[in-house]
Write a structure and sequence with these properties.
There is one protein chain. This protein has 226 residues and is α+β, with helices and mostly antiparallel strands. The chain has a single domain, classed as Chorismate lyase. 27% of the residues lie in helices and 23% in strands. Strands 1-2-3-6-5-4 form a 6-stranded antiparallel β-sheet. The longest helix has 19 residues.
């Protein structure tokens, strides 16, 4: 009999090679079975690991969208500005960024979409004094994703916290705790499944952006692996 760890590993690999038929209108339902819960858990953890190992969440979502056919071929992640939102940088954000009390900090909230699907919502506080003039202009006048604009900086990403906002499996499932499945119903996923808090840094170590990213259930908007 396969061990639970081996089953989990196989499900992760299955999730990375879904066929192109995954792109459909709406959100394909997942059955509320023990297998589907295990698959969902494995896939969210896969995306979590990819985000932790890459500097740009935008480029990671580009690859995720393409690999899981969440949008028509060739679609890229775009940032939709939420222009009415405003969250001035507090003392904690300024400390994270190493910014003095008088330095200008810009707040930018976006929804990152691929095709018609919102994959994440992000709060971003950044230091315009550390960016090139053309980068600031693009960030202020367009909806281009932050990661694409600042990519020429060769920045690194330090994750401060990464947490699952949804637990499809109970504590102790790997030791035989019963999984609360209901095969007659569809799996109920909350709006947000994963949250990351991170700081982006220049090659010289100076922080220039603080991020809070919330990843939506549309990261799983494809049929469950066969």
């Amino acid at each position: 009999m396969l061990s639970r760890r081996l089953i989990l590993a196989l499900l992760v690999l299955a999730g990375l090679s879904l066929p192109a038929r995954a792109f459909e209108a709406g959100r394909p339902p997942w059955p509320d079975t023990a297998l589907a819960r295990l698959q969902a858990y494995a896939l969210v953890q896969t995306l979590n690991a990819e985000l932790l190992s890459n500097a740009s969440a935008t480029l990671t979502l580009d690859r995720w969208c393409a690999a899981h056919a969440l949008a028509p071929a060739g679609a890229k992640v775009v940032a939709g500005r939420v222009r009415e939102a405003d969250k001035p940088a507090d003392a904690a954000i300024r400390e994270l960024l190493g910014a003095g009390p008088q330095e200008r900090i810009v707040y930018r909230r976006v929804r990152l979409t691929c095709g018609a699907r919102v994959l994440s919502e992000a709060d971003n506080w950044y230091r315009p004094a550390l960016l090139a003039e053309e980068m600031n202009r693009e960030l202020e006048t367009t909806d281009t994703a932050f990661g694409r604009v600042v990519r020429p900086l060769g920045f690194s990403r330090s994750t401060l916290a990464a947490r699952l906002l949804w637990q499809p499996l109970p504590v102790g499932w790997e030791m035989g705790a019963p999984i609360p499945a209901d095969p007659g119903r569809n799996l109920d996923m909350p709006e947000f499944l994963l949250e990351h808090r991170a700081v982006l840094k220049l090659p010289d170590g100076r922080a220039f952006s603080a991020l809070v990213e919330s990843y939506t259930r549309d990261i799983l908007a494809f049929p469950p692996p066969p």
